[in-house]
Amino acid sequence: MVKKKFYLYKALFDNAHDNIQANLDGIIWSNDFSLLGFDRKIWRGDKIKSVEDLLRLKPFEVEQRSYEQLIILAKHLGITVLSIGFTDELSADEYDELVELLHTDEPDDLIAFIEEQRFHKLNEIEEITFASKNESGKLNYISFSRNAVLTLDADDRNINLFLSAPPIGVLSGNYLLNESSCWANEK
Question: Does residue 103 sit in the same domain as residue 150?
Answer without folding.
Answer: yes
